[in-house]
Amino acid sequence: NYAAQFYPTSLALEKGFQQVVWTDANTHTFLEEAGTMNVFFRVNDKLITAPTSDRILDGVTRKSIIQLAEDLGIACDVRPVSVAEIKEAAKDGSLKEIFGAGTAAVISPISAFQHQDELFEISGVDAVDAYAKLFKQA
Questions:
Q1: What is the mean pLDDT of the chain?
Q2: How far apart are alpha carbons 5 and 26 in whole angstroms?
């Protein structure tokens, strides 16, 4: 049921964002998914995505990206991803890209995110070696 996302999504739209990246319901310290998409984070040259659960869809696009990464020799960790980890990676420059993936969204690069009142812009979104571009072409 996606009804619960309408209000937070409308707040995000008012701030100029197109999606909300959801956190875990218990502590709000781990990133889960964005709207109806799985989310992938590239920290240095490692791809990271949250494990599936009753709240995170184990979709075919997600499986395909993980398999493509493996086939291309790209390290991929499927593990809990903390908000603090991604914010720190954005601050120290090791966060190279974020993208969402899903049947309707296919692969959608994310150019910025905000947590609390701190805005982080992702510089690698248009890079020649962006994983999102690579996976779209595969």
A1: 88
A2: 16
Q: Assign residue 116 a region: left if phi > 0, alpha if psi is -120 to 50, beta otherwise?
A: left
Residues near 87 by beta carbon (within 8 Å), at least 6 away in sequence: 115, 118, 120
Binned at pLDDT 50, 70 and 90, residue 4 comes out as low
* Helix, strand, coil percentages, rounded to 5, for the chain: 35, 35, 35
Phi, psi of 71 (to 5 degrees): -60, -30
pLDDT for position 2: 60
Instruction: Using alpha carbons, select from 15, 20, 2 the residue that is nearest to residue 83.
Output: 20
Q: In this predicted model, what pLDDT tens digit does every residue of 94-109 receive, in sequence order? A: 999 999 998 876 898 9
pLDDT tens for 63-79 read 999 999 999 999 999 99
Quote the Cα angle for 69-75-77, to 5°. Answer: 100
Q: Collapsing DSSP states into helix, strand and coil, what is residue 88?
A: helix
Take residue 107 and report the two structure tokens written for it: 């692969």
